[in-house]
Structure formats: structure tokens, C-alpha cells
Specification:
There is one protein chain. The protein is α+β, with helices and mostly antiparallel strands and about 180 residues long. The protein has one domain: Chorismate lyase, CATH 3.40.1410. The chain is about 35% helix and about 30% strand. It contains six helices and six strands, in the order H-H-E-H-E-E-H-H-E-E-E-H. Strand 5 and strand 6 form a beta hairpin. The protein is globular and about 45 Å long. The N terminus is likely disordered. This is Chorismate lyase.
């Protein structure tokens, strides 16, 4: 490797690290990852009409994390909703998300929208004025994240009275930080 190619590689790594850190800050500054990603998509010019679509991924639900029911404050066989989606802006997959949520805290209309549409969870439940508590954030992937994940987060969404609403594992892709 030449000195010039080593310098170019170091510069690319620094740029990636800076972009990942900026994405992490954007997510931390907003209770909704959907809203944060829409702002991110617009600010970085990733699409002419920056809006986020939740494309469902086919297949069975992944195994529940061992801490899931305790974090959500449920026991036994409480019915949880689950969505496994790609959050897409234009033709770019920005993240892959696993979302477990308490159906009983949502209206029938919200549950129907989550069951049968590509509307992101954050948009559907926005009227609930939830907050986001990041449990873990790391550069790279969590178990269950696809290869090439550059940032992963586990977050607990809470209702205004503090009750848990949802637990999400989000896997942010390289195309989220690409220009």
C-alpha cells in the first residue's frame, strides 16, 4: 500500500466515523427515528422528496430478546405486535428495524395501520407523544442486524406517563451515511 492510498483510506474512515456520529446525534435529538431520518434524508439530499416508507420484510418474527418482556413491563402471554421493516428514503434503505410494541396501548386504527400499511411506526403513533430512551448505541451491528450495519441502537419508547410502548432494535446501513 502506498502512502497516498493509506492516507486516502484514513480519510475515508474519518469521514465515515464523522457521518455515523452525526447520524447518532440526529437520532438522539428526536423521539421518533422516522422524523430524524426524514430530516437526515432532506439535509443530506438523499432524495428529492424525502419521506420515509416502512417496507415490510417477509418471514417469521425474530426471536424475542430475553429482556423484551421485562423492558416492556409485561408478563406471561401478553399480546405484542411485531414489525420487521426496512426504513427507506427514495431508493435507499436507511435502516432495518425490529419493533415489538404493546398493541393494547394503541387505538384500533393505529393497530390496523401497523398491520396493513407501509406507514412507519413513528408516524402512526405520533399522536401518543411518545419519548425515546436509548438503551444501547454502538458503531456496528447488534445480533439480528444485517451485515454492513454501521450503527445499531436499541431504544425503549415510552408514553407521556412513563409506561413502555415499544422496544426497537434499529440497524442503520452504509447507505444512510453515503452521500
Amino acid at each position: 500500500m502506498t502512502l497516498a492510498s493509506a492516507a486516502g483510506l484514513a480519510s475515508a474512515c474519518t469521514a465515515d466515523h464523522d457521518s455515523i456520529a452525526a447520524l447518532e446525534r440526529a437520532l438522539q435529538s428526536n423521539p421518533s427515528a422516522t422524523r430524524a431520518l426524514e430530516g437526515w434524508c432532506a439535509a443530506r439530499g438523499l432524495d428529492d422528496h424525502p419521506s420515509i416508507v416502512a417496507r415490510r420484510l417477509k418471514g417469521e418474527a425474530g426471536p424475542e430478546p430475553e429482556y423484551l418482556r421485562a423492558r416492556l413491563g409485561v408478563t406471561g402471554d401478553a399480546q405484542l405486535g411485531y414489525r420487521h421493516v426496512e426504513l427507506v428514503c427514495g431508493n435507499r434503505v436507511l435502516s432495518v428495524a425490529h419493533n415489538w410494541y404493546l398493541r393494547e396501548h394503541l387505538s384500533a386504527e393505529m393497530n390496523a395501520a401497523l398491520d396493513g400499511s407501509e406507514i412507519p411506526f413513528g408516524k402512526v403513533v405520533a399522536p401518543l407523544r411518545f419519548t425515546r430512551e436509548t438503551i444501547d448505541s454502538r458503531h456496528g451491528g447488534e445480533p439480528g442486524c444485517p451485515p454492513g450495519t454501521v450503527l445499531s441502537q436499541i431504544a425503549l419508547l415510552r408514553l407521556p406517563d412513563g409506561r413502555p410502548l415499544a422496544l426497537v432494535t434499529e440497524c442503520y446501513t452504509r447507505s444512510a451515511i453515503a452521500k
